[in-house]
Specification:
Belongs to the CvfB family. By secondary structure, the protein is an alpha+beta fold. A hairpin with a 3-residue loop joins strand 11 and strand 12. Helix 2 crosses helix 4.
Length: 280
């Protein structure tokens, strides 16, 4: 079955001067893949992976161009125009994506980068965008486990920290006090479930908690030392940015980790960095 706003692998059933027609099944019939998108050497019977959407005439059309996001995704997109019913954002295709006024938390302006949830409007069948996220997220209690690794996308920045959509399903919060590295709206990254509160709200962490986090980083430090000739120009005096650039971790966890390695006699902490202890 054809999935609008998604990738589909379809068979070429007809060759024409302006492109090829793909088999859209009983529901959609033949779907045009314009000549500009047809792979060189395409023949009848070939199967091509295409993205299916609506063109400027609201006709179903195929493209091999990859959009910046598909139906069901959250994405940071730029507003490129407005009209009497809403605003248009660039999602990487010939026809821009409409975000109706009714789906805007606040009026969008040209040139603004905004987080958008792409969905199919049930009434019209059209692919549109929304900045009203709550109705798309799961209201049932989350079944994540503390310490579980999940993928999130940063959706909002608040006084408390960074609100993120977890696996496209739930809200989570990364407190500013626990944030490090470059975080911004639209960034996708892996984080860990730190806490699931009694009220159902979920707190996130950029690193594994407790001993697991220390052990994981210790392995990375020792492996990196081995690859770099036994010395790394980082120590407890290094800046958070320098530490993050090398190990993608906070300075606090790095200091705790190298302290543990030092106590075990595995490394030597010098003024200019840390060195593997090769004394048996």
């Amino acid at each position: 079955m054809i999935r609008i706003g998604q990738y589909n692998t379809l068979e070429v059933v007809k060759l024409v001067d302006f492109g090829v027609f793909l088999d859209g099944g009983d529901d959609f019939g033949n779907i045009l893949l314009p000549k500009s998108s047809v792979p060189e050497g395409t023949q009848l019977g070939d199967k091509i992976e295409v993205f299916i959407y609506f063109d400027s005439n609201d006709e179903i059309i195929a493209t091999t161009t990859q959009p910046k996001a598909k139906v069901g995704d959250f994405a940071l997109l730029r507003v490129v125009g407005t009209c009497e019913i809403g605003a248009f954002v660039d999602w990487g295709l010939m026809k821009d994506l409409l975000v109706p006024f009714s789906e805007q938390r606040r009026r969008l302006e040209v040139g603004q980068d905004v987080m958008v949830r792409i969905y199919t409007d049930k009434a019209s069948g059209r692919i549109v965008g929304s900045t009203k996220f709550n109705r798309f997220l799961d209201k049932t209690p989350a079944k994540y486990k503390v310490g579980q690794e999940v993928r999130v996308i940063i959706a909002e920045i608040t006084d408390l920290g960074f609100k993120a959509v977890i696996e496209g399903q739930h809200w989570g919060l990364l407190f500013k006090t626990e944030a490090f590295g470059k975080l911004f709206i639209g960034k996708s990254l892996k984080v860990y479930i730190k806490e699931i509160r009694e009220d159902g709200k979920i707190n996130l962490s950029l690193q594994k908690a407790g001993k697991a986090g220390v052990d994981d980083l210790a392995d990375k430090v020792l492996t990196t030392l081995g690859k770099k000739g036994g010395f790394i120009p980082l120590s407890d005096k290094s800046s958070p940015d320098e530490i993050f650039k090398e190990f993608r971790t906070s300075k606090a966890l790095f200091k705790k980790t190298i302290g543990g390695l030092y106590k075990k006699g595995l490394i030597v902490i010098e003024r200019e960095g840390i060195r593997l202890n090769d004394n048996d």
